[in-house]
Prior knowledge:
The protein has 8 helices and 18 strands. The chain has helices spanning 11-24, 31-49, 52-70, 127-140, 175-180, 237-249, 290-302, 347-350; strands at residues 74-79, 97-101, 106-114, 123-125, 144-150, 155-160, 165-167, 170-173, 191-194, 198-204, 222-229, 232-233, 254-262, 265-274, 285-289, 303-304, 307-308, 336-338. The relative contact order is 0.13.
Amino acid sequence: MKRHMTDENQLKLLRMFDEFSRTEGLSLKEESTHKKFATRVLQTIKRHGETPTLIYGFRIESMFAYIAAALGESRILTEEDSGEFFSLDENIRRPDFRLITKSGEEYLIEVKNFHPKDPLSLYKLKSKYLNSLSNYADLSKVPLKIALYWSRWKLWTLIDSKYFNRYKSDFCISISDALVRNEMSKIGDCMIGTIPPLSCRVYADPEKPRNLNPNGKVHFIIKKASIYSNGAEITDKFEKKLAWFLFLHGKWDEVKENSHMDNNLLDYTELSVSPKQWDKNQGFAMVGFLSEMISSQYNLLTSSEGKIHMLSPNLQPTEMGILIPENHKCGVLKLWRFSVQPNYNDIKEREAKILPD
């Protein structure tokens, strides 16, 4: 999927100007109106910039759009809640996105972020808010899904709105229930596993100085850099790209650095990653969900040192993540892919249950 520039003529800005002049009772033609509008825009930008939660919320919406596009199972993704909107009903709200999959399924999706201090906290939705979204979805005859980013764990879940639990007069869901009812696989998400470790080796040029100094330092010229999986060099171009993506954005948490010396001459230096604990009898370890890793890449491109410097990267979704063809045959980089399906077996038992505060 590619992101299309839909407002090349700045019509959105013109609509904003029209709305401003209309509500203020001013003429579009007057230069004083132009100046007042410019002042209002600057004040609004400054006010929003001083509201981190608002900026973060917009960024999470944009992140989901890029993830849905990069996962490869969506045909069309469009903003649903933009442009003018007229309705007979008062309690009605447009969700953030409309998505059509390659298989022809259509969803309306509302994107939310949740970063609880207590890991066991429930994510809650006011019934009036959810009902307003559901009213729009019902009239459109399209299912409503809630894309929820559990930012503490950097996890995405996609839950049908009808599978939220009742919370007194409102609705809620725990992270455990959200993972059980997760429908992210419908838009291409899956868990990826491979054999640890993944390594990046930087080789010294043997024709240049590379000796170990008495002070313990080595000055050298790089001859080449190679990617390794479980000690074997990856030579296939696609597998190298995929391994590097997993290396940078996977959740393996044990990092090792070592250098190989031969007669006091540096051969190569290596950085490797692997999970601290994994079942060696199983033969592979989980690197994480693709959506997790694309989120990590997105964060790297749009923020630094905890500060957001842009809402979305200046990249096409095709340049983010990496699509693994369905018929991909493994070479050196061995892969396991798990498409996690939702389980609704407990829904009927919980429908009448009111959860405590």
